[in-house]
Amino acid sequence: MTDSITGLPGFEDFLSQAGAVICCEDKQFLIAAMDISDFHYINTECGYDTGDMVLHCFAETLMMIVPNIIIGCRSHSDHFIALIGVENIDSERVTRETKRLAGVLKDIISKNTHGISPDINVGLYYLRKGESNIVAAVDKANIARRTCKGNYNLPCVIFSEHLMDIKENSAKILPIFDDSFRNESIRVYLQPKISSETKKVMGAEALSRLVDANGKVIPPSKFIAALEKSGKIIDLDFYVLTFVCKLIRKWLDAGIEPIVISFNLSRLHFYSCTLVDDLKTLVEKFNVPPQYLEIEVTESMFFEASEPIVSKINALRDYGFKVSVDDFGTGYSSLSLIGILPVDVVKLDKSFVKESLKSERGNELMKGLIRILNEIHLEIVCEGVETQEEENIVSSYGCREIQGYLYDRPIPSDEFEDKYLK
Ligand code: C2E
Ligand code: CA
Ligand code: CA
Predict the structure, then answer these.
(1) Among protein residues, the one whose CA lies closest to atom 5 of ligand 1
(2) Which residue, judged by its Cα, is nearest atom 33 of ligand 1?
(3) What pTM, to 2 d.p., does this model score?
(4) Least trusted range by pLDDT, from 154-168, 328-342, 366-380
(5) Which ligand is nearest to the CA of 327?
(6) Got the DSSP string for 166-208?
């Protein structure tokens, strides 16, 4: 059966036609599984007709610009699958081309939705010569696609057996999170932000840790993605903010002048219409002045810069929270957006800082960027500074706030108090 929205074959037809092709032809094949991040957002913001139009254009573009595409289908909702013939396995080239494709698709979606520019998640699986189980191959491409989600640095993920471990990890991590959340045993560490001029602490970022049954600390790289996929990240972020509010309350009661503590807010929060009220209620419960709190939102979220997101950020800033753009420079930066976004702080991502410092051009770019950010009066924090030399360079470019192992790793809050507030 043909899909009425896209004109592509239905999933069952795809499976039988693609299955026949891979059995008969002695070629190398690739399965691509794709979806549009937060597609429901387009439906709710722009209406279902626009949603349908986006799916139609997506399919048309896909079939038109992917070389050697043999057959494509919309498996359901905003999920697309394609069988592609390849000459040889050249992962770098495939990644490059996928990135280009994702860029084109994003542009098309943006044109149809007046500015919503979601990420395109692409998972790829190379069929081995003679491999004939098309259903298993599609599953593997989908596993790779899901790994891509929420991972803004990755244009696509190519399936490897290692991803199966990650999938299993997800199944293990969620019960640990549920238990820790219920027992209130999630740890919240603080990492200082230090002035490169005075060496004094200017603020800190709150970062979470889980602890397994053996008392071993589990880092965020092992649980954030799973929590984002399951939506539980919302609970985690409120947990962290509650912890931070209690801490600031304690400092105020003890007559200690608090420093500004930043916390991460996953972009999932911004789909909730009660976000602003929920945050205010929490802060008011502990009677914490909002100027001691800074919300870190990732750069990729601002990429949409859609009205609902911007108005929530405005409301939060009007209330008194500081807002920072996190992970700036991780791939989709748009300098022009920074000029119009309602933020106070830009945090240069550690990978961007490291990459830039490697070459003369990178150095010039970073210097120029920091100069511009200073000119428009944004605070700048350099993340991931590990050596004195790195600090010297970025501070000579005009970045005066440093968050990195050069000074400290994220540490438990009591240790932080001893070290920085006494
Ligand atoms: P992030 O927000 O970019 O936080 C900074 C990360 O960089 C932290 O990793 C920190 O330990 C690490 N880092 C800081 N300085 C250096 C350095 O000099 N060298 C190196 N190699 N790394 C440095 P961490 O704590 O593992 O957190 C990883 C990410 O997990 C965070 O990245 C953030 O995106 C996410 N995350 C952590 N806790 C939370 C949370 O409670 N809620 C949400 N939504 N995300 C969280
Ligand atoms: Ca952060
Ligand atoms: Ca960051």
Answers:
(1) 383
(2) 264
(3) 0.75
(4) 328-342
(5) 3
(6) HHHHHHHHHHHHHHHHHTT--EEEEEEEEETTT--EEEEEEEE
